[in-house]
Amino acid sequence: MAFPTLNAQEGLCINSIFKKYGHQKGVTMVELSKDMLKTHNITFYKSITFKDVDLYLAAINECLNEDRKSNNARKIQEVMEDGEILSAYYQLPSIQSKDREPLKRYILYKRGAKNKATLVYIEGYLSSDKLMEILFK
User: Fold this and answer.
1) What is the DSSP letter of 79?
2) Per-residue pLDDT tens for 124-136?
3) Is 112 contained in some domain?
4) How far is the C-alpha of 38 from the C-alpha of 42, rounded, in Å?
5) pTM score > 0.90 for this model?
6) Residue 24 burial (CB < 10 Å; 0-12/13-18/19+)?
7) Which residue range forms the structural domain that includes residue 63?
C-alpha cells in the first residue's frame, strides 16, 4: 500500500489560507520542526496569526466551514457570534501512517482582542485530551 508523502493539510481548504496569506504584511506564519515536536507526539504543526483579521475573515470562515463539513470533522468546541466563528477546535478523521497508528489531525482557530486571530493545523499521535493538556498547561 502506498502512503502519501505530503502532510494531510495539503487536502484541506485552510491550506489555501497558509499559502495565500502566510507572507503578507501583518501576518506571522510558524511551522515547527519535527525535532521540536517529538516530545509531544506531534508530527506536523503550522500556525498563522493575523494582527488584523478583518481582510481575511471571510476566507477563513469559508475554509473552516468547508473543512468541517467536507471532512466530517468532529466539533470538539465551537463558539459563534453573529454567524461568525470566534473560536473552534475540530478533530478531522485520522489518516493512516506508514509507521504507526493512524495520525490524528486537528484544526484550531481563535479570534482574540484587537481583531487578532490565529489558525493552527496539527497532526500527530496524540488524543484530543492530550492536545488540550498541552495547549492549556
Assistant:
1) E
2) 888 888 877 776 6
3) yes
4) 6
5) no
6) middle
7) 24-135
